[in-house]
Specification:
globular; 2 domains; single chain; 262 residues; 32% strand; nine-stranded antiparallel beta sheet; 11 strands; alpha+beta
Length: 262
C-alpha cells in the first residue's frame, strides 16, 4: 500500500517529537568487548558527552527463559554520544548504530549527520553490510500548541484513522479514556519493506492535555549493501511525509504553518 503523493513542506510548528534511524549489522565483538575510543575520537567535537547504557531494554530473566532467549544477549552494553545541546544522540552497540534527533528540521540535515557517522562506523569497524534499516517518525500533535484548542479530533485527523471516535458521543469521553490506540503493519512495494503505524492518544509529561501520537516506523529486513542505504532511506523519508499528510486534515495542516520546500 502506498500513500498518495503530496507536496513536500516543512512545518513552522513542527509536530515531530523524535526521529530515529537505526542500522543493524552482523555482531562486532570488538565493539562489545572494548571501549569504542577510536569511534569517539572522530565524533567527540560534535558529540562530547558519552554514557554507557544497556544495549536492550531490561527483561526479567524468567521471561527470557520461557522464550528460550539467551540472557547474555540482553546484558550487552551500548554507548550513547550526545551533542552539547542534547538534541542529537548517537547510539553504538555491537549490532546496531542509531541516530536520534528531538528537534528535526529537514531530511537533508538529518541524512548528512547520519552518513557522516555511518562512514566513521564502516571505516573503524569494517562493517560488511547491513541486515536491517529502520527510519521512524514520531509526531505528537498538541492542540494547545497549534491554536486549535477545543476542535474535535474528527475535524483535525482523517476519519478513517480515528475509528470509533468519529461516532456521536465517543469523542466527548476522550479526557476520561484510559487509552485509545491502534497498530497496523503495511507491506510496501519492496517485498522486504514494511511500515508499522501506531497511533492514538498520548499525554505530555506533567500535563493533562490529551495529544495524538502518529508513530510511523519504516523498515527493511534482509541484507542491504552499504551503497544502497541512502536510496532506501530517501524512499522511506518520502513515504513518511505522504503517510503523515494522509493522516491529517486540511485544517491541521494549515495550523502547523506549511512552507513549501523548493
Amino acid at each position: 500500500m502506498l500513500f498518495p503523493e503530496s507536496e513536500r513542506v516543512i512545518y513552522r510548528h513542527n509536530p515531530l517529537a523524535e526521529v530515529i534511524c537505526q542500522l543493524r549489522y552482523p555482531r562486532i565483538l570488538r565493539i562489545e568487548g572494548d571501549v569504542p575510543s577510536d569511534f569517539q575520537d572522530q565524533i567527540r567535537a560534535d558529540y562530547p558527552t558519552v554514557n554507557e547504557v544497556p544495549a536492550f531494554p531490561p527483561i526479567p530473566p524468567e521471561v527470557l527463559a520461557l522464550a528460550g532467549i539467551d540472557a547474555g544477549a540482553f546484558a550487552r552494553r551500548a554507548f550513547d554520544f550526545l551533542s552539547a545541546d542534547g538534541i542529537w544522540k548517537i547510539s553504538l552497540a555491537s549490532e546496531f548504530l542509531a541516530l536520534t534527533s528531538t528537534r528535526y528540521s529537514r531530511w537533508e540535515d538529518f541524512r548528512t549527520r547520519l552518513e557522516s557517522i555511518t562512514g566513521i562506523l564502516i571505516n573503524t569497524y569494517q562493517v560488511p553490510r547491513f541486515e536491517r534499516i529502520g527510519l521512524r517518525y514520531r509526531d505528537l500533535i498538541q492542540r494547545s500548541d497549534l491554536g486549535v484548542d477545543g476542535q474535535p479530533w474528527s475535524t483535525l485527523l482523517r476519519k478513517e484513522l480515528l475509528g470509533e471516535l468519529v461516532a456521536p458521543g465517543f469523542e466527548g469521553l476522550e479526557n476520561d479514556a484510559e487509552g485509545a490506540s491502534r497498530e497496523i503493519v503495511i507491506r510496501l512495494e519492496h517485498p522486504s519493506e514494511k511500515v508499522r503505524l501506531y497511533h492514538g492518544f498520548a499525554k505530555l509529561r506533567d500535563s493533562e492535555e490529551v495529544c495524538y501520537l502518529v508513530d510511523a516506523d519504516f523498515f527493511r529486513e534482509g541484507p542491504t549493501e552499504r551503497g544502497d542505504v541512502r536510496e532506501v532511506l530517501d524512499k522511506f523519508n518520502k513515504q513518511a511525509g505522504r503517510l503523515f499528510r494522509w493522516c491529517i486534515g486540511r485544517g491541521l495542516h494549515e495550523a502547523m504553518g506549511p512552507e513549501v520546500v523548493p
